[in-house]
Amino acid sequence: MTSPQRIFGPLDHSRTGWASAALAFGKPAADLAVQGPEAMPVTMSNHSHEENWFELLTRPLWGLAAAKDTVPADLWDGLATALARALDPADPWYVGDVANGGQRIVEAAAVGWSLALAPEKLWDPLNPKAKDTTAAWLTNAYNGPVADTNWHYFPIFVGHGLKRLGIEHDRSVTTGHLDRMGEFALGTSVFEDGPGGRVDYYNPFAFHTYALLHFKLCGDDRFVPNAAAFARKFRSWFAADGAAVPYGRSLGYRFAQGAMWSALAAADVEAVPWAEAAGFARRHLDWWWQRPILDPEGRLTVGYAYPNDAVVEQYLTAGSPWWATKLFAGLLAPADHPFWTVEAAVPEPVVEPHKAARAVHVRDRGGHVTRLNGQAWHPWARGGQEAYGKFAYSSLAGFSHSTPGPGLEFAVPDGALMFSEDGRHWRGREDSDEGSIDENGVLKIAWQPWEDVTVTTSLEAAVDGWHARVHVIETERTLHTGEGGWCVPSLGHVAEVDEMKAVVVSQGLRSEIIDGDSGREAALLHPMQGTHLYWPGTVLPVLRGVLEPGKHVLKSLIYIGSEV
What we know:
Elements: H1 4-8, H2 15-33, H3 49-58, H4 61-64, H5 73-86, H6 103-117, H7 119-122, H8 128-143, H9 153-165, H10 171-182, E1 185-186, E2 190-191, H11 202-218, H12 224-234, H13 259-267, H14 274-289, H15 338-341, E3 350-354, E4 359-363, E5 369-373, H16 384-389, E6 392-394, H17 408-411, E7 417-420, E8 426-427, E9 436-437, E10 443-450, E11 453-461, E12 466-475, E13 479-484, E14 488-489, E15 494-497, E16 501-506, E17 509-515, E18 521-525, E19 538-547, E20 550-561
Antiparallel strand pairs: 1-2, 3-4, 4-5, 5-6, 7-8, 7-13, 9-10, 10-11, 11-12, 12-20, 13-19, 14-19, 15-16, 16-17, 17-20, 18-19
Helix pairs in contact: 2-3, 2-5, 3-6, 6-9, 8-9, 9-10, 9-11, 11-12, 11-13, 13-14
């Protein structure tokens, strides 16, 4: 595997440079997709092979349409032909009907977006029959059912394409979807992703990005104030080196995390100073530009900071990662826009409570971000406990997924406290309340791993790279405990462990956990390989102990930083 830096060369942050980057990421996917469904790699997914291929064909269009004048004519010709075939019921490449909703409507949004921006590339070359079948399929997608989540935006973007082409459609459908979206609002800046949904990156890279791009296309600004308010909180999710703190599902969409910064530029909405928005967007793309996320043909792989199917959800397939190309929406801002010309601002340390997101984000003096997290697990998504249920997440140290097997090495409790009755089978926080945040930024969560075990956890972080955890536990059964600090790469690590403290240094990172006189023993854990988002092999400092029935208080201090 290799990085964009190695294949494409240095990244240029001018508008021309970003257009080249959009093409660099989009062309390898498009070159494969235009060969038809049989060329699509077989990867794990809960979708059909045709839907997976449709993802590969359409998702790069989020970036290619914004960079349309940089895309070669022959690539546009191939895409236009492949799309027409994909939407023709009489063609062997037909992706299927949308009458029952489903994944095809998701990808229909990319088609609508592209037709709204570049009809001369994808529509004008089609013959009359192809235009009729394409229009009919898109009209069905516009009117089709959607999941009661951020998916309400997908028919809206299909509608933008239909409008640009002059195809009649019922505008009340768009109004109905927008009205429903408004019902998901939690306060002034946050949306829940459907009833009871979590607050995660679907706010910035879905709800708010789509609201801004919708405004760009038609001038409807109903959700722009929400996006602007969220942006002012969103700043604290990003480290000074460009990394976004990984949290929640769909992290396999990679630099889609930063799409909102570009969407602000596309819509010309200065929610934060342009020096900040530009800085976050540029550094974020820089961070990913250095990661080994491409295969030898230059296509995005499935995984996070390296290829790894084990750390993504059941709905990710080989075409899924090109959601990332929404980051290139900023190309809709002209070359003289401040987003391209301003000197990037450097983010400073901050402690940012975000009650609607049930989180506190802390950017330390080293520029790294820790998320203190109150939200509970997401049982629907594969890996939902690890992606949502840990107490702390780090831009510098990422987090791990558990994997089946006996022992704490398989459970991997980084950022978490876990319990076991036998020392072999472990469980952490699943269902719980969503936490409360006091005026000092202390997050408190109540949870029950068993009916006769109650835990109240308090979390507090500082800008020196440390955070504190206090767990008040009342148990009617004997329990083994395992609490983790932060993982670091196993290659070349050096560790120091005494009774109450474990420290490990590796590749310029230092991870440390200290027991607060709770009687636990410090140890070094070697998690199962391939469980971590950032590194294939890791080591983890932990605290272990045994609790007899009764009331206990466990205290710990945890550090991660580049100060070794």
